[in-house]
Write a structure and sequence with these properties.
single chain; 329 residues; alpha/beta; D-Maltodextrin-Binding Protein, domain 2; six-stranded mixed beta sheet; five-stranded mixed beta sheet; 14 helices; 47% helix
Length: 329
């Protein structure tokens, strides 16, 4: 008799748990997605696309509130909020995320990728999976690797035709160790300024220039305050689309699946926007009389930054750097 009652109790408890999970799965959910870029940036457009996809896939049950243009702080502030669970999602930046996972900064070493397509293929494979697994103990779930483009140099001093032209130039870089090392190796004076403050910093002469992909240069209207654009293609950067592990753990398996599917679709959309922007904006900028465009030979830049690779292979995560270098080839 006791065995029967015990069996009935277990059956009832299991049924109640399943019922509770079913109710939870159908409960409305509202999540916040934050980013730090302007509304015309492909990252911002992808955030809106992601929110639309999630709403469509859940019949409006799960809604995503997008807080863009650094409404909730800069990338580092958002990253901290993700880790503590006070923010649900962020389309963040490679530099800030590398502050919690140094290996991530290696993606931005000089001339790792010759094209965006090659970078996407690598990040969608074992290298990207390895980095994603290393982010989980940091309370971060990697939803996808969005794109932050192949980067170019803009400034107000002179065309950058060789590494020597960077000597003495005050250049804004993201807080990314590989980028800082790269430009210091070529003689630039690097400074870290929030992207939201960069336009004024250039306009007032706090810095002479910066380095970003054409899409970000355009979204930030930096072409309005810069004279020279040098197509150096010196590095690639990703846009890690992250979710708080604490938020992720509260979702049902079905909702997790929807979030992942929507992130994948939004990433394809965002990557295509970035690639299209390069072609469109190159033509647009060449037609502007206020801008001078030059395409320098990459060989001297690669030679000048070889020592950065050598130094990074000696870091505690040097094995990962070597693996990345081999995979990129």
């Amino acid at each position: 008799m006791k065995t029967r009652f015990k069996w009935l109790a277990i059956t009832f408890a299991t049924g109640a748990l399943c019922a509770a999970q079913a109710v939870l799965a159908q409960a409305p959910i509202k999540l916040t997605l934050a980013h730090a870029v302007a509304p015309t940036n492909p990252r911002a457009m992808a955030a809106v696309k992601f929110a639309e996809l999630v709403s469509q896939k859940t019949g409006g049950r799960v809604t995503i509130q997008v807080a863009g243009a650094a409404q909730l702080g800069d990338d580092l502030t958002m990253l901290s909020a993700l880790r503590t669970g006070t923010l649900d999602m962020s389309m963040n930046s490679q530099g800030p995320v590398s502050s919690v996972l140094p290996e991530l900064s290696a993606l931005g070493l000089p001339y790792v990728f010759s094209t965006q397509q090659k970078a996407w293929e690598l990040l969608d494979g074992p290298i990207g999976d390895e980095l994603a697994k290393k982010l989980e103990p940091k309370n971060l779930i990697l939803l996808s690797w969005m794109d932050n483009g192949i980067r170019q140099i803009t400034n107000n001093k002179r065309p950058i035709t060789t590494p020597d032209d960077l000597k003495g130039i005050k250049l804004r870089t993201p807080p990314d160790p590989s980028t800082v090392d790269m430009f210091q190796a070529m003689g630039a004076s690097t400074q870290q300024i929030n992207f939201s403050e960069l336009y004024i910093a250039i306009q007032t002469g706090v810095v002479d220039g910066q380095e970003k992909p054409l899409a970000n240069i355009h979204a930030g209207k930096l072409h309005e305050v810069q004279k020279y654009i040098s197509i150096t293609n010196h590095k690639y950067e990703s846009t890690p689309f992250l979710m708080s592990k604490l938020t992720w753990g509260k979702l049902s398996a079905d909702d997790q699946k929807v979030i992942k599917e929507a992130a994948k679709e939004a990433t394809t959309y965002q990557r295509n926007l970035m690639a299209e922007a390069d072609v469109k904006l190159m033509a647009e900028y060449k037609a502007m009389p206020s801008l001078q465009i030059n395409v320098p030979d990459q060989a001297p830049f690669k030679a000048a930054t070889q020592k950065v690779w050598d130094a990074w292979e000696q870091k505690p995560f040097g094995d990962f750097v070597k693996k990345l270098r081999a995979a990129a080839k």
